[in-house]
UniProtKB/TrEMBL annotation:
<dbReference type="GO" id="GO:0016787">
    <property type="term" value="F:hydrolase activity"/>
</dbReference>
<dbReference type="InterPro" id="IPR000073">
    <property type="entry name" value="AB_hydrolase_1"/>
</dbReference>
<dbReference type="Pfam" id="PF12697">
    <property type="entry name" value="Abhydrolase_6"/>
</dbReference>
<dbReference type="InterPro" id="IPR029058">
    <property type="entry name" value="AB_hydrolase_fold"/>
</dbReference>
<dbReference type="InterPro" id="IPR050266">
    <property type="entry name" value="AB_hydrolase_sf"/>
</dbReference>
<dbReference type="GO" id="GO:0016020">
    <property type="term" value="C:membrane"/>
</dbReference>
<feature type="domain" description="AB hydrolase-1">
    <location>
        <begin position="14"/>
        <end position="237"/>
    </location>
</feature>
<keyword id="KW-0378">Hydrolase</keyword>
<protein>
    <submittedName>
        <fullName>Alpha/beta hydrolase</fullName>
    </submittedName>
</protein>
């Protein structure tokens, strides 16, 4: 099965990978600006999100995504869980990746902060009680920063609803194929963005990766929550264009 994706514009390739609370629609504020700046933008729905249903057999997200760009080079922009997929791609296919921009990127195995554990416990309790509306609103409260407009919150609300439709709470966890990789093999320059209103885990991950990756820098945004691209689109669009033009 080919995952759902769409391509806009023409020029150097940029591949955008969504958060695991959202789907490829989270990048709608970025696509016009990036295409106007001269980039060819691909955005995809990972399996279990948006228009990509879960398969009946195990899969690997990075393998799915790697089929969308040939020999490269491609710049990867990843949000949260999509940032982790971007890291795996950059580690496994370093010759094909020209750069990384991770917006509040995740990192598998990173120890969860007390704040993140408390959020997970609240979400589990709401789901166990059958209160999916409450679980959706908890995600809005947790992940959307103070600058998120009502429209941005509605967009996240709709995407989180879609996640629950495709991955019904209570069903067995979908099984992915785990492939060993190491950040030490990443050669692409990286920019690691974190938000001052986000859970502390993601600032810590950004700080760690900024010290572990070559030519990496951490860009903390004191105003941002977990989705800076939805909270202040114009600011993030300018930042992305500047970074991508200088790769």
């Amino acid at each position: 099965m080919t995952i759902a994706y769409e391509v806009s514009g023409d020029g150097p390739d940029v591949l955008m990978l969504h958060s695991t609370i959202c789907d490829r629609r989270m990048w709608e504020p970025q696509v016009p600006a990036l295409t106007e700046a001269g980039f060819r933008v691909t955005r995809a729905d990972l399996r279990g999100f948006g228009e990509s249903p879960l398969p009946g057999t195990p899969w690997n997200d990075a393998d799915d995504v790697a089929e969308l760009f040939g020999d490269g080079p491609v710049a990867l922009v990843g949000s949260s869980g999509g940032g982790y997929v971007a890291l795996e791609l950059a580690a496994r296919f370093p010759e094909r990746i020209s750069g990384l921009v991770l917006l509040c990127g995740g990192f598998a195995g990173w120890p969860k902060s007390p704040e993140r554990l408390a959020y997970a416990a609240r979400e589990d309790a709401l789901i166990a009680a059958g209160d999916l509306d409450g679980a959706v609103e908890l995600n809005i409260e947790t992940w959307c920063g103070p600058d998120a407009s009502p429209e941005a919150k509605d967009a996240v609300r709709a995407m989180q609803r879609r996640v629950f439709e495709l991955q019904p709470p209570g069903d067995p966890e979908p099984e992915q194929i785990e492939i060993d990789w190491d950040v030490a093999t990443i050669t692409a320059p990286a920019v690691l963005v974190s938000g001052g209103h986000d859970l502390p885990d993601f600032r810590q991950i950004a700080e760690h990766l900024a010290g572990a990756l070559p030519r990496a820098r951490h860009v903390p945004l004191d105003w941002a929550g977990h989705f800076p691209n939805l909270e202040r689109p114009a600011v993030i669009n300018s930042l992305l264009i500047e970074i991508l033009q200088n790769l």
